[in-house]
Amino acid sequence: MKMETTIHGLTASLSPAKHAKKLIGFVPTMGNLHEGHLNLVREAKKICDLVVVSIFVNPTQFGPNEDFDSYPRTLEQDSHLLADVGCDIIFAPAVEQMFAKAPRKTNIQVTDITDGLCGHARPGHFDGVALIVTKLFNIVQPNYAFFGQKDFQQLVVVQQLVRDLNMPLEVIGVPTTRAEDGLALSSRNGYLTSEERNKAPQIYASLQHAKGALEQGELLTSVLEDMRSHLQAHGFEIDYVEARTPELQTITDFNQDIVLFVAAKLGKTRLIDNLIVHFAT
Ligand code: AMP
Fold first, then answer.
1. What angle (nearest 5°) sits at the alpha carbon of residue 24, between those of residues 164 and 55?
2. How many domains does the chain have?
3. In a domain? residue 179
4. Assessment of whether the complete model's pTM goes beyond 0.90
5. What average pLDDT does the chain have?
6. What is d(CA 23, CA 141) in angstroms, rounded to the nearest whole number?
7. Of the residues 19, 37, 80, 278, which is catalytic?
8. Is 81 among the annotated ligand-binding positions?
9. What's the CATH number where 205 sits?
10. Are residues 197 and 62 part of one domain?
11. Which residue, 3, 53, 65, 208, has most beta carbons within 10 Å?
12. Which domain holds residue 64?
């Protein structure tokens, strides 16, 4: 496994594979890797000849009062984990490598589907994601890119971006990896106190309960209300509990699949999760 920290170095490392027309898979991450990230790499290894994993804490996707400075940076540990799952190249650039000193005059904005959910709570977040993903895709030029369904809105935004700009790659969504108690794995879970960690699985429990209730024919509005009450009773501060179509549109027809979304804070830690309820016939 190679580690590259410059765009030039990465391009040189990828060049033989590109000339040999090898299939390149790409997994963008912010590091502090866990099994969720590693499962993206495992999926990439199944269909690609060579897998690149980027580790870059992207400043443009953090708001002014968010955790950019304190976000865990664990490159050495991450590189051992990646070697074990067969990653071929780690791309770990410094901020200065990705954002040169000359002022940038280009923005990438995906509209409409970024208005609600996390886009509402985190203004500018998806502009930052769209920008870094576009830059990384241009640098790596992969055939396939792998994103987690845990960040469902991000996955849909990236799929839209790739479609709208005719980017020559396929985006693959990978199911959420969970702890045994159901909590979706996240680098931010490390911020939880042990008391908060014990409460955190209630998010997935409420999603599963809601799925069951919807399948039994309960009304969506009351199911969402029950989720809110349940989470509040367990000490969560709710950011949103919502249902959307898999394309992130509001639900008008109940013969299609529904995605239930939760974002809620436990203390200072903001957690997100989602669950798909299949109704489409
Ligand atoms: P991050 O490092 O948090 O930016 O995540 C990098 C990639 O890993 C994104 O595509 C995430 O959706 C994905 N990811 C993070 N946590 C999980 C998880 N628990 N299961 C599946 N994918 C995940």
1. 85
2. 2
3. no
4. yes
5. 97
6. 10
7. 37
8. no
9. 3.30.1300.10
10. no
11. 53
12. 2-174
